[in-house]
Amino acid sequence: MSLAMAVTAAAAASMVAVSPAVSPPCPAVMVHATFAPAAQARDHKAVTYDTKLVPVSAKVVVVEFLGKPRHYENEHEHEYEHGHDHGHQHMGGAARSTPTQSPSPQSPSPTQSPQGTQSPQGKGQGTFVGVWVRGVKAHHTFGVHVHTKPCGTMPDDSGPHYQNTKDPKQPSVNPKYANPRNEVWLDLTTNGHGEGYAKAQVDWRFRDSEARSVVIHEHATATGKGHAGMAGTRVACVKVPFKG
Ligand SMILES: [Cu+2]
């Protein structure tokens, strides 16, 4: 894992810190891996089925946070600041508000924990998932989702999308079930260097051992009736033992 990826991952761990008085929660799950050929799926966390889009040298980080920390919506623009922030104020930087100072616009839910208990074992309802890739095809949009089974040597080994409310009709292409509120969608578009980032936040937790991978597809995820959730072939996969 390169330094840049390590910094990004560290930023992920710190970006949900809501107050200087509260230490950042540890991620429930963090996976970083280098994509290996699909034939080696048994021994590697990440595999590629299409080396033109996801070369064997490409890297990936997936992180999951449980609970419902505030300020999810702000973390991206601050991630690099937080990555090296040890509590001091930034000097000479752009004058913009920090996540620690702006109150959350979200209304608290009845089951939400009080501030300061946002550990992975906290009582907050939600789940946050972030994914970073590096060294993949530049200027390309990938459809990315959480799937139910671990990656294998074959693209379909990772099973269907994880759904909070399961569509009785599988494969699910009904937008009522195949949508980013009932599934975890992490579509991302890479920059000119083949780096990309996406995050998703849902109100629910994964059921135990039912969410096992992040699958990268060849194009953006469709949302229309009869196509919802489809994103083309599976080009790569990361084993992630999501917790709920
Ligand atoms: Cu998928």
TrEMBL record:
Q: Where is the composition biased (Low complexity)?
A: 91-122
The coiled-coil regions, if any, are: none
Q: Which UniProt keywords apply?
A: Signal
* Composition-biased stretches (Basic and acidic residues): 76-88
Q: Where is this region: Disordered?
A: 76-126, 146-179
Signal sequence segment: 1-23
Superkingdom, according to UniProt? Bacteria
Q: Which SUPFAM superfamilies match?
A: Cu,Zn superoxide dismutase-like
User: What family classification does the UniProt entry report for this protein?
Assistant: Belongs to the Cu-Zn superoxide dismutase family.
In its UniProt entry, what is this protein called? Superoxide dismutase
Origin species:
Streptomyces cuspidosporus
